[in-house]
Amino acid sequence: MKNVTDSFASLGHWPSAGSFGLNTDILATNPINLSVVFGVLIYFGKGVLTDLLDNRKQRILSTIRNSEELRRGAIEQLEKARDHLRKAEREADEYRVLGYSDIERQRVGLIQATSDSLEQVKNDKNETLRLKHQKAIHQVRQKVFQQVLEGASGTLNHCWNSELHFRTISANIGILRTMEKREKKRMN
């Protein structure tokens, strides 16, 4: 410490002009040199450092604002995507419900159509059987009438004279034609 104070004390005493020397005492000259360098740096570098820090601050703030805007945009897009997803889920549910109800309606319709078809087949079968039965009865009646007529005609031919025979045949033919007309009406 004595050397430091001696350096400052020697500053007050200047040697005579013309002599210039180098102070080799590092401990005495270093704090002075450093204080001068720091003073010059602070005085001249303060503006540059302030500008650098201000630019850095502005870039950081700009990056933060951009990040906030991007975050808000991402949140909006996320909300839109969620709304779209909810809408799609509702539509899918509606389609599913409509599909199930449509399938159920088609199933009921098919069951009803099948039931109606079976009923119609049953009715057609019964009608066909009834018509075949009536046709068979009609054919049997015609054969019986034909046989009766032939038998009656044969009997009358042997027993009666021709005029009586002719009148009886004409009367029987008229009766048979009336019966045949009634039978045709009944068939229709």
Automatic annotation (TrEMBL):
It comes from the Eukaryota. It is a single-pass membrane protein. Belongs to the ATPase B chain family. GO terms for cellular component: chloroplast thylakoid membrane; proton-transporting ATP synthase complex. Component of the F(0) channel, it forms part of the peripheral stalk, linking F(1) to F(0). InterPro entries: ATP_synth_b/b'su_bac/chlpt. It holds the Pfam family ATP-synt_B. Its main location: membrane. In plastids the F-type ATPase is also known as CF(1)CF(0). Keywords: ATP synthesis, CF(0), Chloroplast, Coiled coil, Hydrogen ion transport, Ion transport, Membrane, Plastid, Thylakoid, Transmembrane, Transmembrane helix, Transport. CDD domains: ATP-synt_Fo_b. The keyword Metal-binding does not apply. HAMAP family: ATP_synth_b_bprime. The keyword Ribonucleoprotein does not apply. The chain crosses the membrane at residues 32-49. One of its GO terms (molecular function) is proton-transporting ATP synthase activity, rotational mechanism. The gene is atpF. This is ATP synthase subunit b, chloroplastic. It is found in: Membrane; Plastid, Chloroplast thylakoid membrane.
